[in-house]
Structures
1.
Amino acid sequence: MRESTGGTRERIKAVALELFTEQGYEKTSLREIAERLNVTKAALYYHFKSKDDIVASFVEDRLVQIDALTAWAESQPATLDTRRELVSRYADTMFSGEMPSVMRFFEQNQTVLKSLTAGQQMRGRMMKLADALCRGDDSPAAQLRATLSLFAVHGSWFALRAPHISDDERRKIALEVADELLAALGPDPAPPAPPAPPDVGATGRS
């Protein structure tokens, strides 16, 4: 059975990421990616015309995830519970599949990202997600805390340098730090006031 086009594309991305990690982005060629995949260079070109196209596909996948999180957050009440759930969902995307390796690659290849249109869009999307996170508190401090709470999650992949730390421990620490920041954001919106009771004393007055 022939492998689906989508499956081939994902396999190319996985192998490319392996090689980028092993020997660096600049030192990896499309020919090497094709050889490790055991396909012709022409077959690789069918899916990606360049290494930049492969990197752009990683960024585009990430943008889709961020957009979905932002849309969810904007549909929820601006409460601390929503903020915690949003950061937890953000962590879920960061600690699943190949995303840890992708994020390490992003961090180590900032110059490559800045040269790509998709890479330039990443910052704007992250700021929009941070805005959704601090809805209900538009102070400058809230904007910074919201951004830092997200950074605590993805920054845990390169900022935590403790040896032998597990992914679960890394995630737990990141969420603890994020929660400290979230707790300092503006209070939950007050519930609507109950309707005023009828003025019983005024009943029957002429």
2.
Amino acid sequence: MRDLTPYQSARRLGGNGDVWLNANEFPLPVPFELSQNTLNRYPECQPKLVIERYARYAGLQPDQVLVSRGADEGIELLMRAFCEPGKDAILFCPPTYGMYSVSAETIGIEYRTVAATDNWQLNLPAIAEQLDGVKLVYMCSPNNPTGNLISADDIRQLLEMTRGKALLIADEAYIEFCPQATLASWLAEYPHLVILRTLSKAFALAGLRCGFTLANPPVIDLLMKVIAPYPLSTPVADIAGQALSDDGITLMRQHVAQLNDNRQWLIDALRQCACVEQVFASETNYVLARFSDSPTIFKTLWDQGIILRDQNKQPGLAGCLRISIGTRDECERVIAALQLLSGASREHA
């Protein structure tokens, strides 16, 4: 434990900014208010209204839904339910979300990595060679931090490859930004498919800590054996239920449309900046870009109160910074700062 490196969340990394574009949050607060006044009582383990509303939203049955403290708890619950420390392994394909490895290390489970291909797709032959002893395969689509979708044909091949051997966990934290790509309807065909979701991104409720695991009932039943007695506090269940109402879902979709418009504006503007070498396509609420001098750009913007996320240490992402999509004003501030830097570098040259 002394040697473990904790997950470096945006808040742990700090900063004194007023333009926070490093945690893929919605940039403005949402107008929900508490309606429950039963804090003297313990909450339901799986609040009925939240489960029913999420199942309806996802097009599933309530017995296919588990709610937890963010999708991060779902990541860990799966390891605790299906992996024996010191014996079983998990597998994932970097560059990707950092909590898969952190949770495995914390529990004492071996993790194996198979680097993504040059275009950040699955290296299926290499994965096949590593599957012996693997109980869980984590796959993020759209992927964080690259922003791309994993090929549906490759996912089907991976599901066939893991059938009867391992669970495939599809992390869909950002799926609201490309809802046509969800695998939720595939659960009927693949008993070993599991899907992770969250209210932190498109639903603008990162501070709520509310996530969902979607799976077939036998998997949900096993997860219920290891989940904490009261994973959701009463206020969290209260707000989550409101967010999943018809009005709440309509509001979320309006927010997604705004962010998608801002994302396209930011991508177009980044491509005009001299200090930007490459801007990658995104199906999410963030954009990954490669810069000619990313350490200087990161530090300069940091000092101006514009906080981005450095991805240099991720495999294959040298020179890359990830920029969350903020308000249009925040996006404009990023571009103005980069244009000043580009002008200064040209004068220096």
3.
Amino acid sequence: MLFPGPVLEALAGEPSAPAIEHGGRVVSRGELLALVRRCAGGLREGGLGPGRGVLVTGALTPESYAVQLAAHALGCYVAAARPTWSPVQLADALEKGFDLVVTGDVLAGLVAGPDAGPVEVLAAPGDLARLTFTSGSTGNPKACAQTYRAFSLAYLPGHWPPPLRALMACFDRCLALDGPARTVVLTYVGRTLVRGGVVIIPELPPAEAIPEHRATVTMLPPPLLHRLLDTDADLSGLRAMVIGGAPVAPGLLERAVARLGPIIWQGYGQAEAGVVAMLTPDDLPAGYAGAVGRPLPAVQVSLRDEAGRSVPGGAAGEIWVRSPHMMTGYWGAPELTGEVLRDGWLRTRDLGFLDGDGYLHLTGRTRDVIIVGGEVCYAAAIERVLAGHPDVDQAYVVGAPDAETGEAVHAFVVPAAGRAPDLGALGALVRASLSTASAPKSITVIREVPLNDSGKPDKNALRRP
């Protein structure tokens, strides 16, 4: 059954049961299905159908989720805009080929329309279903294209691997925080409804929302987990905590287990690849806190050298993956697609190794990237923006561990002759050109950049202070 069929079928099966709690209201499964029917009718009248594109803006609400279900039912390809995008990034996304941008006003008009009756799922397995945007820290977000065949697997319980089935058993009341991992959150929203649970879209921070709404599970990036563990909130009702979106230090996992008990799950994946590996509560006490988990059964992992050749067993290499749910390519960007897709395999550009027990460990990245609060920020893109300012001659960017955001961006600039850069203006330039996460936490003026033995800029020397 193709998406959104499993979700619509679950909603129709228990129309009086609650589906979503949001803003002090409880939306029943029947009411959510009615929202989907009204949105589908309005989209049809607007000429939307198979092969047409819909971009949804704004925060996660019952209405914004309903319009995505409706667009998928009509066979459209759907994407969600990131709230942190700069105007330049949003404009670039719009050029990728969307027939409708669902703003607040458009959404209000759709949900106010008449009930169009039963919704038929019109998509074909090979049709484009979803465009998942990368963080856009390169200046222009890349859109990872996924077919309905691949996209639908996440919502079919019969295709869930054993670890995911065990995790989903905890999804009675899922606290869905709309944040950097929006696509992941939307996936768990749909799975919760298929499983028979209730989705909670909170207006409070996690420390208050979890006990207030009696949440049994939530998904957090490491920085938010840090903050949650620093509170004295009553978290005893949680049966599972899913961590992802950024590197997780073993110490943080151990601290979380000490506070919450054996309920911590960690997912490793990418927008391009989907979920690659999962670390379960049973793995942490067994001494695997330094790993990102075992690859899922449907995921093949190959460790390769710079030439794309397999490395010996146990050796480190670049992680290549092949799975039924990975992207078909970057939408409208064949050259970029060719850089990462080779003979059915995806280059993750992450480095790692598989240990003797089959656990995947990450050791680094082939790309010069910094992950800030779950958002991938590219050092080269930030350097280009800074170096483009007339007061700057050279710019160098490094990442360093940060207690609040996991990693933080730190920039070093060499002034142009006779110039004195305004550091605040430089930070604002990056924020406007790329994203809030890309804005440097510190900008240091240096006379010259240190060089390594080969004569190249020595970023390790910059990072040490």
